[in-house]
Amino acid sequence: MPDTHTSRRWPLAAALAGLLLLGGCGPDAPHETAARAPAAAPPAELQALYDQARRAGEKELVLYTAFPETVELWQAFQQDFPEIRFKPTATTQLYTRLASEAASGNHIGDLVLTGYSELAELVRQGRLARDVPATSDTIPAAYRDPAGYFQQPWVNAFTLAYNTRLLRPEEVPQTWPQILDPRFKGRFAHVRFVGASPFDAAVVLLQEEGKLSDAQLQAIHDNGGVSDNPGTLTANLAQGRTDFVLWAPAQVVARLRDNGAPVALSFPADVAILYGPGVASLRDAPHPHAARLFKNWLFTPRAQAIIADKEYAYGTAPNAPAPKGFPAIDSFVQKSIPFDQVNAYFDRYREKTQAIWR
Fold first, then answer.
1. pLDDT by residue (tens digit) across 173-230?
2. Which of 335, 336, 332, 337 is nearest to 7 (CA)?
3. Alpha-carbon distance 335 to 357, whole Å?
4. What is the three-state SS of the chain?
5. Alpha carbons 15 and 342: distance in angstroms, whole number
6. Which residues, listed in sequence order, are joined to residue 299 by a DSSP beta bridge?
7. Which of 15, 138, 294, 297 would suit a FRET pair with 63, their CA atoms being 20 to 30 Å apart?
8. Bridge-partner residues for 63, per DSSP?
9. What is the pTM (predicted TM-score) of this model?
10. Phi, psi of 293 (to 5 degrees)
11. Distances from the Cα of 267 to the Cα of 221, 247, 258, 303, 315, angstroms
């Protein structure tokens, strides 16, 4: 994909399986929370889309998502458009489910919010409909599929997280030589590479940019621990079983920190990456107007602010706020991977990581 800024490059989007591990399976509909102040009236263009959906009798909206835990954002959409029952639905069998719906003619899903690798495959299978929300017109081209099949509403940071009882901020390693220093042998961990997860993307991006050598990748294996479950890894960090974690999901660590866990985030230039999902409309969606409404809403200032404030992610719209305490999005410099080569990149690096982590 083309770059639109010299300092901000397009990051690969998170794969479904890896992100489901981060968030766990969630409910089909947003949880109820304490009473909130009424939302302001939606902009005229969103109100027009809402009216179209209601006139068409579209009373629900089904989103197949790798982010069932994104509760605050889902609640806000439901609050703004209460006559449409919003159903974010986690699925680990996305291809199978969509193939079954197509074969039966009983289409249930309206949208998908998932990783770039999965979206590329869904385009190949002909499952997606071209749809470009008017509100996404101003986001950098790096966050938009040039063919119009999907757009990225946010990206997550995957970076170094540490236990504040075991390391002071000035002791946190910031370079690969420091991370791989013998004094940290056995004191850090990372998630096992599975081939198409945010953690695999970290290797792809950092090696492509010359920030992580083959020798350093081997040293990560030799010096660090590995976990099959991101949730276990961050829990171990909070419990002091490991000093620091590589490529920890920043949104998960931030929530642990807010709940009183002794954890903090650092953003070393040669470790931290951005990696986020794309949202796409499904072909033959039963609620196309509601789907278009949701996609347009995601890129509004209201939704982008919630993404930063409540979900600890970076909205992709211009001037979207960064999560509190996080560096500006333009501080991340990442290689742009062409859309049609994404899975080839994953395949190539999967061979490398699997040869090391047998």
1. 999 999 999 999 999 999 888 777 788 889 999 999 999 999 999 999 999 999 988 8
2. 332
3. 25
4. CCCCCCCCCCCCCCCHHHHHHHHCCCCCCCCCCCCCCCCCCCCHHHHHHHHHHHHCCCCEEEEEECCCCCHHHHHHHHHHCCCCEEEEEECCCHHHHHHHHHHHCCCCCCEEEECHHHHHHHHHHCCEECCCCHHHCCCCHHHECCCCCEECCEEEEEEEEEECCCCCHHHCCCCHHHHCCHHHCCCEEEECCCCCCHHHHHHHHHHHCCCCCHHHHHHHHHHCEEECCHHHHHHHHHCCCCCEEEEEEHHHHHHHHHCCCCEEEECCCCCCEEECCEEEEECCCCCHHHHHHHHHHHCCHHHHHHHHHCCCCEECCCCCCCCCCCCCHHHCCCCCCCHHHHHHHHHHHHHHHHHHCC
5. 11
6. none
7. 138
8. 88, 111
9. 0.86
10. -60, -45
11. 21, 10, 18, 25, 18
Please identify which residue in the block is written with the tokens 């719906």. Answer: 101
Q: Which two tokens stand for residue 105?
A: 């003619």
Closest to 107 in 3D by CA, of 279, 283, 289:
283
Mention every residue, 6+ apart, whose C-beta is less than 8 A from residue 260.
none
Token digits of residue 349 = 């690096």
